[in-house]
Amino acid sequence: MPISVERPSRNRRGNGQPPNPGNPAPEQPSASDTEQEAHSGAKPLVGINDAPDRDWDLLNIPLDQIEANPFNDRDMGDLTDLAESLQLPAGLLEPVSVMHREVFQAEYPDDPNVAQLTAKYTLGFGERRWRAHAIAGKKRVRAVLRNDLAPTIQEELLKENWHRKPPTELEEARGFSRLARQGYSTRQIAKAMGIRDHTKVKRRLDLLLLPPVVQEAIELGAAKGGIGPTNARKLLQLDDEAQRIQAWDLMRTERLTADDAMKRVILGPQRTSDDADPTGSAGETAGAAGVQSNAQPDVDNPSEDKDEAPGDEAAEETQPKPEQKPVAPPKKKLEAPADKAAYERRVGSSNREQACVHLLRRADASQAQGVAVLLSRALLVPVKQDHARSRAHAWLTESGSAELNVRNTESYFEAVLSSPSRSLIEHVTFATALAAGEVRAADRRRPSWDAHDAAFVKFLMDAAGYVPDTQWEKRELTRLGVALSNTKQDESERSETESL
Description:
Layout: H1 31-40, E1 58-62, E2 66-67, H2 80-85, E3 96-100, H3 101-107, H4 112-115, E4 121-125, H5 127-135, E5 140-145, H6 153-164, H7 169-181, H8 186-193, H9 199-207, H10 212-220, H11 229-234, H12 241-254, H13 258-267, H14 278-289, H15 312-317, H16 337-360, H17 371-380, H18 385-399, H19 409-417, H20 422-442, H21 451-464, H22 471-479, H23 486-499
Parallel strand pairs: 2-4, 3-5
Antiparallel strand pairs: 1-5, 3-4
Helix pairs in contact: 6-7, 7-9, 8-9, 12-13, 16-18, 16-20, 16-21, 17-20, 18-20, 20-21
């Protein structure tokens, strides 16, 4: 519903249209007039209105009638030079843009920060200039009314800040998150921001799932004792926030890599039978924590390093390590097989999820050979359908193939069932069957796989080119009669021998 604003009775110079060559811009007061008015407290200049009702009107607004836009969370930096420039004869060269608060609030009724606004106007663009006016002792600021910005101001602010000064990873994440809450998919956010690889958006959003202490370390940066975004995202493979904090503490205090810190958290400190020698014991502990260092692949997108701030990950790798004395090779390792198996199952599940998302990006994915059997198993084998639907919805969104911008899972599936698009229904059904297979295969309450799990993984191997990478997967698949290539079996046997 449009917001009605009382029309002023006096004439205005603006005609409500954006300036263009055929429609000259409204005449603006000179810098000297504006300066004199600001110091004298005089009323606005004739023809410049404080409460116009049309976009593109030029206003001269008291500073205290404007509030900052809650969607602009960028650091304002040092405003001293900008404030000093306002004392020069030229004054403010470009007006700020504002919206009526009522219009802005009507566009975002559910945002608590927007609801708290009380001033007559809300800033669109120009917060640095507005704040610099206060520092310079000005009473008013020239502004252009732009109520038309309200529906897209989040996206426009993000783009303006993005191109003016490269944001930090978490600033990007928070900006993307606001757009996601407005119904944007990761692909739509990438398109709006000019990002070629939409998976970068997903990687940034993942950072907001980390504990606050890890987010603070990301802001600090690896070069200053913090952590880079790539290694931080690896901590999400751990089950809960407490484990992620524990892993980060190990990285910070013992200078472990993210992989070694996670293994320490999952497996716990390992001891050898030769406890009498403290030096040997320490060496065996480190060795046990690092068993099968190649068992965990890097699940991040291979192109991610291109998107990170230059030097972050390099700094992480070049951090000085405490000097270690050479130790004798351990005589024997005592491992915790159950814990190690749980760790490998988590890694395998993460890899299979990536394979499923990759498969869903293909338009013909639901026509792949073996889909009918996959669907039959999904219907006949008991599985928690709500978990499968939730995971399928997340995969479809990440792959950019959801088609419908519906954030709630149940509402999304209702919308799909009501859709006239047969191909969409088939694609979502296929995604749900994939998710049902993965939910069952990833269930660590089941100590081993059965033929249904083996058939699901074999389908991923055939349709998505998935390669089982953990020893646990390889053992189970071999036991259930799924043939691996000779090369893969040889690698598996070598890894088994090395781990003993």
